[in-house]
Request: fold
Amino acid sequence: MAENQKAGTLINCFFCEHFYITHEAKFPYGCRAIDFKSARMPAVDVYNNSEMDCALFVRKERGHQHHN
Reply:
């Protein structure tokens, strides 16, 4: 881990209703709430930039899927 990177986050984007897979090789993970794509889980980028867990996390309802 690089010296300037923080330890991480307990947020798991896979359980968030805003998370999606982009199908782009360089930026495979996306967050609809923040409107960005990343090479890492979006919550990790949020934590590394703010030192806070993502405040926009909304747990998916069981069996709920986005079809956009």
In short: The first helix runs from residue 42 to 50. Helices lie at 42-50. The beta strands are 19-21, 29-31, 36-38.
